[in-house]
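Reposting from the mailing list since nobody answered there.

I have sequence plus structure tokens for a pair of proteins and want to know whether others read the tokens the same way I do. The first protein:
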Amino acid sequence: MRQETEKVTFIQQELQQLTQEKQQVQQELQKQLAAFNKIEADLTRETEKVVSLQQEKQQAQQELQKQITSLNKVEADWLKKPKK
């Protein structure tokens, strides 16, 4: 009977230790998941910023191209005028 009691006690201790280890692993996983979610959110925000900047760059390039075209026309018209 004593031997059975010792086995039960040993098994209970093992179970308690495994339960504690499981809780520690779950806590660590929660921390890692929270860190991952933060990184993912930061990456999403930064990606949105990059897309916005790319759109602004494209608009600026289009505007510059319009200005270049306009200046080229002004220059061509000026060169066509008879010189005095």
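The second protein, same order (residues first, tokens after):
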Amino acid sequence: MQYFLGIEVGTTRVKTAIYDIEGNQITEETSSHVVFYDKKQNSAESPVLNWWFSVKKTIRKALLKVDPKNIKAICVGSHGPSLVALDKKFNPVGNSILWMDRRGSNEAEFLSKKLGLKSNDLAWFIPRAMYLRNNSPESYKKVRYFVQPLDYINCKLTGIIRTSIVSDTIKIWNEKTIAASSLPRELFPKEIKMGETLGTTSKYTSEETGLPLGVPVIAGTGGADFLEVLISSGSLKKGIVCDRGGSSQGVNMCWDTLFGDKRFFEAPHPLLKGLYHISGLMATTGKALHWYKNLYYGKGAGFEKFFEDASKSPPGSKRLIFLPYLTGERTPWWDPNARGVFFGLSLEHTKHDIVRAILEGTGFGINHMLRLFKQHGAAASEIRVCGGQAKSPLWNQIKADITNLPVVTNKVTDGSTLGLAIIAGFGAGVYKDIVSSGREIVKVAQVYEPNESSHRIYSQMQPIYENLYPLLKTQFKKLSSI
């Protein structure tokens, strides 16, 4: 029996899963880690060592379900773009500056202007390194390497430091950006492409985790965690949208032409020759749910009551619209100063309407991107929903009703670790091709067809949602300066 180990270092937890050669999940183990938020500074950090503790813990638990000798390869993925600073001995220099950290806006704006880019959003890696240099000079003096979370874990597994990239066109930095930042080039380790063997598990790793010595560690998706899900969701086809719903939202689609629209990320597709990868991002979608749930249901409460209450409100939440911009917004506005808004709140609204409006806010944001896709001639045919949001039938139906597209869920809803396992199998020589293997392995669980009457309501509310930010942009800026 051959098994592959996928390890996903998420924003708030580590997931470690073992899959067999046919893509069946044998086991999945999770372990949470702390994130430090400072609302006044707009900062978000995480202790780097906690990730390694969680990785070790989950590997040991997962290996109880199989013979460790049958683990043929490992692949690690992670959130991003999050900054990890290491010293010359590969020890962390302070906490990781996470992808949702909104400091460094001055550095991002500086780079945007210098490089002639429209966006100055902090969905970049280099501005965070610049921020550390400019604001923590004592810490910066100790830095020998800037890497991503997955690169740090790979280093712990193998003792080798590399920068994981998807391809020559999809990576977290390039030579022009480094030159514009005036950061020393030697702070950025050599690159290794997805699917290549980075090294093998060391004696230290074997002792710490229970893994055998010498298991191949395959380079993952270079912080482009969306690709893990594209591989495992059946989204590697023109016109199929992949909706990756976690703490934030990623909307991805393959198309045969570039848009030339700087509001989106566009690049030649790393896995599909002749096609392009188009993607947009929303900053705080699932995180908005957690925020409201913790405030009004309690931190220890599950989401069952939340979704039950949302189901008691009608489509449109009695004319209530939520902008999920709790830490700014990415596509299409790219504004770190934007903030969340409940628009249309009245005395008739109940808790049920508010929680449904939060769910619908994500749907409106996704549909806004799809409408912009369509303006460029790219019409979506269906949506594959992945991540934790895929487990909510109500949320899936809301997305179908708002977008007027079929929403499809797979049996493996959280496909990040499955995608990593497929990459591990490819790197180990078991799978000949990542794309075809992903298509064969994916298994559809359910299809949510749009409801016509609900869509009529949402189609009237969609333009209102899209018009709110332009009307509030100046006020967001003024509010941020207080």
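Reply #1 (J.P.):
I read it the same way you do. The chain has two domains: 3-224, 234-414+438-480.
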